[in-house]
Protein backbone atom coordinates (compact mmCIF):
# COMPACT_ATOMS: atom_id res chain seq x y z
CA UNK A 1 0.00 0.00 0.00
CA UNK A 2 2.42 2.69 -1.20
CA UNK A 3 2.25 6.26 0.03
CA UNK A 4 3.27 8.71 -2.68
CA UNK A 5 4.72 11.96 -1.34
CA UNK A 6 5.80 14.45 -3.98
CA UNK A 7 4.57 12.36 -6.89
CA UNK A 8 0.98 12.65 -5.76
CA UNK A 9 -1.70 12.08 -8.35
CA UNK A 10 -5.45 12.38 -8.02
CA UNK A 11 -7.10 8.97 -8.61
CA UNK A 12 -9.74 8.84 -11.33
CA UNK A 13 -12.59 8.37 -8.84
CA UNK A 14 -11.63 9.09 -5.26
CA UNK A 15 -13.76 7.19 -2.80
CA UNK A 16 -12.60 8.76 0.46
CA UNK A 17 -10.23 11.52 1.46
CA UNK A 18 -9.18 12.94 4.81
CA UNK A 19 -7.56 16.32 5.35
CA UNK A 20 -5.45 16.26 8.53
CA UNK A 21 -4.25 19.61 9.86
CA UNK A 22 -2.26 20.42 13.01
CA UNK A 23 -2.77 23.84 14.60
CA UNK A 24 -1.40 25.89 17.47
CA UNK A 25 -3.80 27.46 19.96
CA UNK A 26 -4.30 30.45 17.62
CA UNK A 27 -5.48 28.29 14.71
CA UNK A 28 -2.17 28.59 12.85
CA UNK A 29 -0.18 25.89 11.07
CA UNK A 30 3.48 25.30 11.95
CA UNK A 31 6.26 23.78 9.86
CA UNK A 32 6.95 20.09 10.52
CA UNK A 33 10.56 18.95 9.83
CA UNK A 34 11.01 16.48 6.99
CA UNK A 35 12.57 13.83 9.23
CA UNK A 36 9.51 13.91 11.50
CA UNK A 37 7.17 13.70 8.51
CA UNK A 38 8.96 10.58 7.28
CA UNK A 39 8.41 8.85 10.64
CA UNK A 40 4.76 9.97 10.72
CA UNK A 41 3.93 8.75 7.22
CA UNK A 42 5.55 5.38 7.90
CA UNK A 43 3.47 5.14 11.08
CA UNK A 44 0.25 5.91 9.21
CA UNK A 45 1.16 3.28 6.65
CA UNK A 46 1.65 0.61 9.33
CA UNK A 47 -1.50 1.72 11.15
CA UNK A 48 -3.59 1.58 7.97
CA UNK A 49 -2.24 -1.85 7.09
CA UNK A 50 -2.98 -3.18 10.57
CA UNK A 51 -6.53 -1.86 10.67
CA UNK A 52 -7.43 -2.55 7.04
CA UNK A 53 -5.85 -6.00 7.08
CA UNK A 54 -6.92 -7.37 10.47
CA UNK A 55 -9.87 -5.30 11.65
CA UNK A 56 -13.42 -6.54 12.23
CA UNK A 57 -13.96 -6.44 8.44
CA UNK A 58 -10.59 -7.30 6.83
CA UNK A 59 -9.92 -5.51 3.55
CA UNK A 60 -7.89 -6.84 0.61
CA UNK A 61 -4.81 -4.59 0.72
CA UNK A 62 -4.05 -5.41 -2.93
CA UNK A 63 -7.17 -3.46 -3.92
CA UNK A 64 -6.23 -0.32 -2.02
CA UNK A 65 -4.52 2.74 -3.45
CA UNK A 66 -3.37 5.33 -0.89
CA UNK A 67 -1.87 8.67 -1.87
CA UNK A 68 -1.14 11.84 0.02
CA UNK A 69 -0.15 15.39 -0.66
CA UNK A 70 1.21 18.01 1.72
CA UNK A 71 -1.06 21.02 1.23
CA UNK A 72 0.27 23.31 3.98
CA UNK A 73 3.08 23.54 6.57
CA UNK A 74 1.19 21.06 8.78
CA UNK A 75 -1.74 19.98 6.58
CA UNK A 76 -1.98 16.73 4.63
CA UNK A 77 -4.56 15.36 2.21
CA UNK A 78 -4.83 11.55 2.38
CA UNK A 79 -6.80 9.86 -0.41
CA UNK A 80 -7.98 6.25 -0.44
CA UNK A 81 -9.32 4.56 -3.55
CA UNK A 82 -9.88 1.13 -5.08
CA UNK A 83 -7.31 0.22 -7.69
CA UNK A 84 -8.62 -0.35 -11.20
CA UNK A 85 -6.91 -3.48 -12.55
CA UNK A 86 -5.54 -3.20 -16.09
CA UNK A 87 -7.75 -5.89 -17.56
CA UNK A 88 -9.37 -6.61 -20.87
CA UNK A 89 -12.99 -5.61 -21.56
CA UNK A 90 -14.58 -8.92 -20.60
CA UNK A 91 -12.42 -9.27 -17.49
CA UNK A 92 -13.33 -5.74 -16.40
CA UNK A 93 -17.00 -6.55 -16.77
CA UNK A 94 -16.53 -9.64 -14.65
CA UNK A 95 -14.63 -7.70 -11.98
CA UNK A 96 -17.10 -4.82 -11.78
CA UNK A 97 -19.31 -6.58 -9.23
CA UNK A 98 -16.35 -7.25 -6.94
CA UNK A 99 -15.27 -3.61 -7.23
CA UNK A 100 -18.76 -2.39 -6.33
CA UNK A 101 -18.67 -4.58 -3.22
CA UNK A 102 -15.23 -3.24 -2.30
CA UNK A 103 -16.34 0.40 -2.14
CA UNK A 104 -18.67 0.07 0.89
CA UNK A 105 -16.00 -2.06 2.56
CA UNK A 106 -13.53 0.80 2.07
CA UNK A 107 -15.99 3.32 3.53
CA UNK A 108 -16.49 1.11 6.59
CA UNK A 109 -12.72 0.63 6.99
CA UNK A 110 -12.18 4.39 6.89
CA UNK A 111 -14.86 4.83 9.54
CA UNK A 112 -12.99 2.34 11.72
CA UNK A 113 -9.71 4.23 11.31
CA UNK A 114 -11.37 7.52 12.29
CA UNK A 115 -13.05 6.01 15.34
CA UNK A 116 -9.92 4.24 16.56
CA UNK A 117 -7.80 7.35 16.00
CA UNK A 118 -10.15 9.60 17.96
CA UNK A 119 -10.56 7.03 20.75
CA UNK A 120 -6.79 6.54 21.03
CA UNK A 121 -6.06 10.27 21.16
CA UNK A 122 -8.83 10.92 23.69
CA UNK A 123 -7.70 8.14 26.04
CA UNK A 124 -4.07 9.21 25.68
CA UNK A 125 -4.91 12.85 26.41
CA UNK A 126 -7.01 11.95 29.47
CA UNK A 127 -5.36 9.19 31.55
CA UNK A 128 -7.77 7.95 34.18
CA UNK A 129 -10.78 8.23 31.87
CA UNK A 130 -13.46 5.56 32.13
CA UNK A 131 -14.72 3.14 29.49
CA UNK A 132 -18.40 2.20 29.74
CA UNK A 133 -20.25 -0.39 27.67
CA UNK A 134 -23.74 0.61 26.54
CA UNK A 135 -26.20 -1.65 24.75
CA UNK A 136 -27.96 0.02 21.82
CA UNK A 137 -30.44 -0.93 19.11
CA UNK A 138 -27.47 -1.24 16.72
CA UNK A 139 -25.32 -3.31 19.09
CA UNK A 140 -22.94 -2.59 22.00
CA UNK A 141 -20.97 0.67 22.10
CA UNK A 142 -18.08 1.87 24.24
CA UNK A 143 -18.36 5.33 25.76
CA UNK A 144 -15.23 7.20 26.85
CA UNK A 145 -16.03 9.25 29.96
CA UNK A 146 -13.82 12.21 30.91
CA UNK A 147 -14.57 13.68 34.34
CA UNK A 148 -17.63 11.42 34.46
CA UNK A 149 -19.14 12.77 31.22
CA UNK A 150 -19.24 10.91 27.87
CA UNK A 151 -16.91 12.53 25.33
CA UNK A 152 -16.80 9.92 22.56
CA UNK A 153 -18.57 6.70 21.61
CA UNK A 154 -17.49 3.91 19.27
CA UNK A 155 -18.60 0.33 18.48
CA UNK A 156 -17.46 -2.20 21.08
CA UNK A 157 -16.01 -4.48 18.40
CA UNK A 158 -13.29 -1.85 17.77
CA UNK A 159 -11.97 -1.97 21.34
CA UNK A 160 -9.44 -4.73 20.62
CA UNK A 161 -7.87 -2.53 17.93
CA UNK A 162 -7.65 0.43 20.31
CA UNK A 163 -5.69 -1.62 22.85
CA UNK A 164 -3.60 -3.58 20.31
CA UNK A 165 0.11 -2.84 21.08
CA UNK A 166 1.12 -2.94 17.40
CA UNK A 167 -1.63 -0.48 16.42
CA UNK A 168 -0.67 1.78 19.33
CA UNK A 169 2.98 1.74 18.22
CA UNK A 170 1.91 2.77 14.71
CA UNK A 171 -0.20 5.61 16.13
CA UNK A 172 2.79 6.81 18.18
CA UNK A 173 4.81 7.14 14.99
CA UNK A 174 1.93 8.65 13.04
CA UNK A 175 1.33 11.26 15.74
CA UNK A 176 5.00 12.11 16.20
CA UNK A 177 4.62 15.66 14.74
CA UNK A 178 2.45 16.47 17.77
CA UNK A 179 5.50 16.13 20.02
CA UNK A 180 5.94 19.82 19.23
CA UNK A 181 4.37 21.43 22.36
CA UNK A 182 3.16 24.36 20.25
CA UNK A 183 0.55 22.15 18.57
CA UNK A 184 -2.75 22.41 20.44
CA UNK A 185 -5.20 20.42 18.30
CA UNK A 186 -5.70 18.44 15.10
CA UNK A 187 -8.65 18.53 12.74
CA UNK A 188 -9.73 15.72 10.42
CA UNK A 189 -12.05 16.84 7.63
CA UNK A 190 -13.56 13.92 5.76
CA UNK A 191 -14.90 13.69 2.22
CA UNK A 192 -16.81 10.60 1.05
CA UNK A 193 -18.07 10.31 -2.52
CA UNK A 194 -16.94 13.96 -2.92
CA UNK A 195 -19.40 15.04 -0.20
CA UNK A 196 -17.55 17.31 2.23
CA UNK A 197 -18.29 17.72 5.93
CA UNK A 198 -18.54 14.00 6.70
CA UNK A 199 -16.75 12.53 9.71
CA UNK A 200 -15.21 15.87 10.76
CA UNK A 201 -13.29 15.63 14.02
CA UNK A 202 -11.32 17.87 16.38
CA UNK A 203 -8.75 16.17 18.62
CA UNK A 204 -6.93 17.91 21.47
CA UNK A 205 -3.17 17.73 22.02
CA UNK A 206 -1.72 18.08 25.51
CA UNK A 207 1.24 16.89 27.59
CA UNK A 208 -0.47 13.56 28.32
CA UNK A 209 -0.85 12.85 24.60
CA UNK A 210 2.83 13.70 24.07
CA UNK A 211 3.71 11.29 26.89
CA UNK A 212 1.83 8.58 25.00
CA UNK A 213 3.69 9.43 21.78
CA UNK A 214 7.01 8.98 23.58
CA UNK A 215 6.04 5.59 25.00
CA UNK A 216 3.63 5.93 27.92
CA UNK A 217 0.87 3.28 27.69
CA UNK A 218 -2.79 4.16 27.32
CA UNK A 219 -4.14 4.39 30.86
CA UNK A 220 -7.90 4.42 31.20
CA UNK A 221 -9.21 3.27 34.56
CA UNK A 222 -9.50 -0.15 32.92
CA UNK A 223 -9.76 -1.61 29.45
CA UNK A 224 -12.58 -3.76 30.88
CA UNK A 225 -15.54 -1.39 30.44
CA UNK A 226 -18.03 -0.87 33.24
CA UNK A 227 -21.61 -1.94 32.54
CA UNK A 228 -24.42 0.17 34.03
CA UNK A 229 -27.43 -1.54 35.57
CA UNK A 230 -30.79 -1.20 33.84
CA UNK A 231 -33.15 1.56 34.85
CA UNK A 232 -36.76 0.79 35.72
CA UNK A 233 -37.81 2.16 32.32
CA UNK A 234 -35.41 -0.21 30.55
CA UNK A 235 -36.64 -3.16 32.63
CA UNK A 236 -40.24 -2.32 31.75
CA UNK A 237 -39.37 -1.86 28.07
CA UNK A 238 -37.85 -5.34 27.90
CA UNK A 239 -40.94 -7.12 29.24
CA UNK A 240 -43.22 -8.93 26.78
CA UNK A 241 -46.30 -6.94 25.78
CA UNK A 242 -49.72 -8.45 25.27
Question: What's a concise summary of this model?
Answer:
The chain is built from six helices and eight strands; from the N terminus they run E-H-E-E-H-E-E-E-H-H-E-E-H-H.
Descriptive notes:
With 242 residues, the protein is an alpha+beta fold. Helices cover 35% and strands 27% of the residues. It has helices at residues 34-54, 89-125, 159-162, 165-174, 207-213, 232-237, and strands at 16-23, 64-72, 75-82, 130-136, 139-146, 149-155, 185-192, 195-204. Helix 2 (89-125) crosses helix 5 (207-213). The longest helix is centred in the middle third of the chain and has 37 residues, at 89-125. The model is unreliable at 1-14 and 87-94 (pLDDT under 50). Residues 232-242 have a biased composition (Basic and acidic residues).
Topology at a glance:
Elements: E1 16-23, H1 34-54, E2 64-72, E3 75-82, H2 89-125, E4 130-136, E5 139-146, E6 149-155, H3 159-162, H4 165-174, E7 185-192, E8 195-204, H5 207-213, H6 232-237
Antiparallel strand pairs: 1-3, 1-7, 2-3, 4-5, 5-6, 7-8
Helix pairs in contact: 1-4, 2-5
Give the end-to-end Cα distance, rounded to a whole number of Å. 56 Å
Task: State the share of residues found in helices, binned by percent.
Answer: 25-40%
- What percentage of the residues does DSSP assign to strands (E)? 25-35%
Q: Biggest β-sheet, characterized?
A: 5 strands, antiparallel
Rough shape?
globular
Mean pLDDT: 82
What is the β-strand count?
Answer: 8
Q: What is the C-alpha radius of gyration, as a whole number of Å?
A: 20 Å
In N-to-C order, the SSE pattern is: EHEEHEEEHHEEHH
Low-confidence stretches: 1-14, 87-94
Strand order of the largest sheet: 2-3-1-7-8
Amino acid sequence: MPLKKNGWRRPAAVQHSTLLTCYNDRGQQLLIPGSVLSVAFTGFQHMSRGIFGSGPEPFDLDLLDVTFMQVGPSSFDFRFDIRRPDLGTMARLGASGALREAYPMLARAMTIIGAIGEATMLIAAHPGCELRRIETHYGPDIEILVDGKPRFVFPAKFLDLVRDPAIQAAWRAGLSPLNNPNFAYVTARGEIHKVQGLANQVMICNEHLRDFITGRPLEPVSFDPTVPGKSQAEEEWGKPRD
